[in-house]
């Protein structure tokens, strides 16, 4: 498998994780609406994750871009592609892992759950370099 295949697989996995977290959130909203269950949490949105996951994705992206020796054409298209696929999508996916681990509650994450989220953010940031 080439690096591009791995990168596409990483993005597909990130999107699947984000979809699972979103379905869980919608299920809580629906339960609240239909059965008068407890209201969903305000931080259920996958975009409202901690800034550290975005920082980890950006750091991995920059590290791979600088140390890989790949020659980039730094234009607005390249920067937007790297921003979306290298920072936003991995950050959303990492926060989705955190939401799925806690089922939307405010309980603290276990160490391995947090580590999986940060590894996913770093892997997504690093894999995005191959799209350029």
Please tell me how large the radius of gyration is: 16 Å
Order of helices and strands: HHHH
**Counted beta strands:** 0
Poorly predicted runs are: none
Structural class, from secondary structure content? mainly alpha
Instruction: Give the distance, in angstroms, between the N- and C-terminal Cα atoms.
Output: 18 Å
Overview features:
mainly alpha; 4 helices
Question: Could you write a compact summary of the structure shown?
Answer:
By secondary structure, this protein is mainly α. It is 71% helix and 0% strand.
Topology:
Elements: H1 3-35, H2 51-67, H3 76-102, H4 111-127
How would you characterize this protein structure?
It is a single chain. With 132 residues, the chain is an all-alpha fold. 71% of the residues lie in helices and 0% in strands. The chain is built from 4 helices and no strands. The longest helix has 33 residues, at 3-35. It is elongated. The model has no long low-confidence stretch (mean pLDDT 81).
């Amino acid at each position: 498998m080439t690096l591009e295949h791995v990168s596409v697989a990483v993005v597909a996995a990130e999107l699947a994780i984000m979809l699972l977290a979103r379905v869980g959130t919608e299920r809580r909203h629906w339960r609240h609406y239909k059965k008068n269950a407890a209201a969903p949490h305000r931080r259920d949105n996958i975009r409202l994750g901690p800034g550290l996951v975005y920082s980890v994705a950006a750091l991995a992206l920059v590290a791979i871009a600088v140390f890989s020796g790949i020659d980039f054409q730094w234009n607005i298209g390249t920067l937007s592609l790297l921003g979306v696929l290298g920072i936003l999508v991995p950050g959303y996916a990492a926060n989705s892992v955190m939401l799925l681990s806690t089922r939307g509650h405010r309980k603290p994450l276990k160490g391995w759950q947090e580590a999986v989220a940060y590894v996913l953010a770093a892997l997504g940031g690093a894999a995005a370099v191959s799209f350029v």
